[in-house]
Each structure stands twice: as C-alpha cells, then as structure tokens.
Amino acid sequence: MSNALDTIYNISIGLEEGRGNIQIRLARETGNVQLTLFIDRFDESMVEKTELTFTNDTDLVSVIDTLRWARVANLKNKGYKVVM
User: pLDDT digit string (tens) for 72-83?
Assistant: First the structure.
C-alpha cells in the first residue's frame, strides 16, 4: 500500500437551484476519477450529494467534450460569437 495521497480539486458554483460545489478526486491507488456534486438549495429544503466514479478515460472524455459543446451552444444562444 502506497503512502501517496489522493489529489483533490474543488470548484464552487452558483446554480439556479442553489449553491454548489464540485469535488474532483484522483485516486492515486487506482487512477480512478471521482466526481462529487454537492447542492445546497436556496429554500434549504435539502442538501444533495451525487457521486460518480470514472474508471476509464473514454467516459471521462465524453463528459468533458459534451460539457464543452453545451457551453458553446449556450454562448451562441446568448448571441456570442464563438471561435474554436
């Protein structure tokens, strides 16, 4: 067993539903990427936590690419010219 620590990245986000936090953890032992989404709703009705663990690069790349294209579509919809 290695003494290496996992690498963790945190991103605070503002959502229509409330405040959010995305935690991205790289597990040193397995190389898996764990994405955890926390949402604190504005009406304080609940705190949501969703965890996704990516065990292969293909799925992770698919999510990243889809988010990239969704962002482009969102910006174009708002009238911005997008150059890629």
Answer: 999 999 999 988
Determine the Cα angle at 68 with ends 62 and 7, to 5°.
70
Strands (E), 1-84: 7-14, 18-26, 33-41, 47-54
DSSP 8-state symbol, 67: H
Which phi and psi (to 5°) does residue 46 adopt?
-165, 160
**pTM, rounded to two decimals:** 0.76
DSSP 44: -
Positive or negative CA dihedral for 48, 57, 60, 64? positive
The answer to whether the beta carbons of residues 54 and 60 sit under 8 Å apart is yes
Check residue 79 and report its DSSP letter. T
